[in-house]
Amino acid sequence: MLEGLKRLEYRGYDSSGVAVWTENGIKQTKRKGRVVELETALGDDLGGTLGISHTRWATHGDVTATNAHPHTSSDGKFALVHNGVIENYVGMKNFLIEKGYSFKSQTDSEALCNLIAYHYTKEEEEQESAGKNRFLESVRKSLRHVEGTYGIAVICTDYPGELIGARKGSPLILGLGKGENLLASDVNAITHCTQNVVYLNDNEVVHLSNDDFAITTVSCQSVEAVIHQVDWDTSETELGDYKHFMEKEIFEQPTSLQNGMRGRFSDDASTAVFGGLNLTPQELRQIDRILFLACGTAWHSCLVAEYLIERFARIPVEVEYASEFRYRNAPLDKNTLVVAISQSGETIDTLGALREAKRKGYRTLAINNSVGSTIARESDGGIYQHAGPEIGVASTKAFTSQIMICAMLALYLGRLRDLSYGDGVEIVKALKKVPAQVEQILEQNDHIAAIAKRYSKYEDCLFLGRQLMFPIALEGALKLKEISYIHAEGYPAAEMKHGPIALISEECPSVFLATNGETFHKSLANAQEVKARKGKIICIATEGCDIPEGLADETVLVPEAHEIVTPILMSIPVQLLSYHVALERGCDVDKPRNLAKSVTVE
Ligand code: M6R
User: Using a 6 Å cutoff on CB, does residue 471 contact ligand 1?
Assistant: First the structure.
């Protein structure tokens, strides 16, 4: 369990705990802070062979050991771990207090644990006479009262060797091992024990022991399990010689980008091919609008997709924050294709938006990095990124691989319409060169680290870029703020003079992203406006760009390339810059404060 928790720590890391079934009742240990605190407290022997554990990202209640999971029922019979949010927990809690149950924590999860205990006691005679498993029935019955989302695992003192799990809205995976079975909210937590997994669906309940399992629905229908083989190389989730996962993942990009392209070009190398779109070329030609949905970094990938698809395929594209789309009730055209981008495939805002689009009858596609994730399974078709597991909370290789996939999608859709054979061939050539070009940029690591050293003390920073560089400016600002806690903003460079220019001073440097192209000289003019106000300038540009002497305080150059791949290339220095600034400031780059890798609550 501790190994699993460590592998899951990127999903939440403010406190953790375990509960183990023993003959003397449930033995529980919880600690505030990282899993290592828990490990120290536990010593060598957990004292049992059945247990549940959790590493928390706080939603309800402060970060304390008491609010950490597992939670136990006030009669001590049940222990539960929970991901998600029980929206009606206040009413549930008041009801249970009236019935004599007591509460130790401020969490919504404890209410569910006590509700299970309540049903267990209440239904005693009824269940026994019906010959049913009372533990299972009381979990099922309680879940029928829950409004909200959950991925849970529960143990009961009266049922040695039995574990019950259930999901709705939060991921839950069953691992089938040798002489042991496991539950986890992410395959990454169990691949060191087994590669055989069953992805549970919403409203399913799994009842397991070390050598058996049965899946039913909350309403008691039996479910046939589909066993999948996870083909991950477990070393992919280990640090190796790197200091941080973020560093490792930045340096893995030549490989992750190569993997995303493998086998995905046509024989004549003039277009891309995708196996899982589940849409014929005829159907794709009828699409007259694409709506992209995502959150965070993945949303920035969507903005790149907007530029690329409109430019090369001439299809109008809209980009929405998934969390806004779901409740906005936007009117959409019937020939709209909805594309969700998500590294984890479990982000609840993106999943909610995808479901809303499906409910309205739109065709949906997912661009996703986690095979078997909920978003991948629920969309009508999709494209896997094949970037390998991303552990660092700050997304890096997943971002560039999403852009790569979007560039290939723009090429594919373009070639179904008006993009010429010759243009297609040029683009394929440009895409194939990217891994080597990224390798070249990574060689500037020391140069970028030296720049970071000079700029790590500033508390504000602007990232400015035009056209395709605007999403990269947004991503640069997000990277810097999420791992180094520096206030940073991304803007279209020309927008700066409409407000943000007021921030420019000696105390606020600007990162300019400028590639050779039609707006290059206009970007330089914007940089001059910063210079005139004594703002320092870090210029990230393509080789061969004519940057006037004395304009930039620092310069990083990336290889000249076809415009379709410049967003990928320009992302690399931006990632390295934020990584090194965060290191200089002594920040925990892999586990930045307040964040979690995949956000499975709304
Ligand atoms: O797993 P997803 O791609 O759906 O995650 C979306 C965002 O939560 C994620 O990109 C987040 O913004 C990252 N921390 C950014 O580095």
Answer: no
Whether 260 is covered by a domain: the verdict is yes
| Atom 12 of ligand 1, nearest CA residue | 296
User: Do 490 and 427 reside in the same domain of the chain?
Assistant: no
Instruction: Scan for tokens 């190994």, then name that residue.
Output: 3
- Residue 243 forms part of a structural domain: no
Owning domain of residue 85 = 2-231
Give the Å distance between the CA of 297 and the centre of ligand 1: 5
Tokens coding 530: 């910063």
pTM of structure? 0.85
Q: Are residues 15 and 78 in the same domain?
A: yes
Q: Which atom of ligand 1 is nearest to the CA of 297?
A: 10
User: Running along the chain, 602 residues long, what does each successive block of 10 average in pLDDT?
Assistant: 88 89 94 91 86 88 91 97 94 96 95 97 67 92 95 97 95 95 93 94 96 95 93 76 95 96 94 94 94 97 98 97 89 92 94 94 95 92 93 95 98 96 97 98 97 96 95 98 96 87 90 86 84 92 87 94 96 98 95 79 74
Among 200, 231, 262, identify where a domain stops.
231
**What distance lies between CA 41 and its chain's CA centroid?**
30
Buried b (16+ CB within 10 A) or exposed e, 268-277: eebbbebeeb
Ligand 1 touching residue 237 (CB < 6 A)? no
Where does residue 148 rank: exposed (0-12), middle (13-18), buried (19+ CB within 10 A)? middle
463 and 425 in a common domain: no
Residue 273 resides in a domain = yes
Same domain, 269 and 406: yes
Q: For residues 205 and 82, state if they share a domain.
A: yes
Count how many domains the chain has.
Answer: 3
The whole-angstrom separation of Cα 420 and Cα 405 is: 20
User: From ligand 1's centre to the CA of 14, what distance in Å?
Assistant: 19
